[in-house]
């Protein structure tokens, strides 16, 4: 894989303390993520996928090891140039679509004229024209998630952390948002770290897939996704190449689900 390393994870571990109990979540994880790469983390519930994402974003402190983003060790403050899209849409109900998307630009002190232009472009990219003055309560779940995505993208992050952003959506809406995300990613070329339970989603979107073991999460295998880009989210799932990738990765991932179920 060409490109410089943007995120370097070395011997990363995390143990949570719950009263007298210690709960190991992540154990001795090491891998690199390169510039403009789309990497998906998959594994059973509780294997530490979201914990790794939160440690990259400095929302959770590691118990051991280190994370380096663009040559700087992550410690305390979130790394610069990083955006985060959470599992829930996290839009503010008292703000319109336009004002929700503008939030990060307001925090950064971007002048009003530039802010308005960037929000207008983001709304057009997300297909939200005509809903600028709408409040979240009047929007579908998929539309609210597009608002949350554009709120992160409008500040032009170079690294995007995504924690199961489409997990609560129906299949049709999810596929539409996969297509939207791929289109935006191909235009912006961010480095993306994407957490998901859905192997189909990971194969459709990612360049590489990191398969985690059951808790405490370790890396079981890392797969290069051998599907050409650009990808049509419907046609790609009908291809023999997709079925081959799915079967190969599911063999490793399914073993972990079986162990959890015992």
How would you explain this protein's 3D organization?
The chain is an alpha/beta fold and 262 residues long. It folds into 2 domains: 1-81 and 157-242, Rossmann fold; 92-156, no CATH class. 35% of the residues lie in helices and 25% in strands. The chain is built from 8 helices and 10 strands. It has helices at 49-56, 97-101, 103-107, 112-125, 141-153, 171-188, 199-205, 240-261; strands at 5-18, 21-34, 38-42, 64-69, 72-73, 82-85, 159-163, 191-195, 208-212, 219-224. It has a 6-stranded mixed β-sheet with strand order 6-7-8-3-9-10, with helices on both faces. Strand 4 and strand 5 (72-73) form a beta hairpin. Helix 7 packs antiparallel against helix 8 (240-261). The longest helix is centred in the last third of the chain and has 22 residues, at 240-261. It is globular. The model has no long low-confidence stretch (mean pLDDT 90).
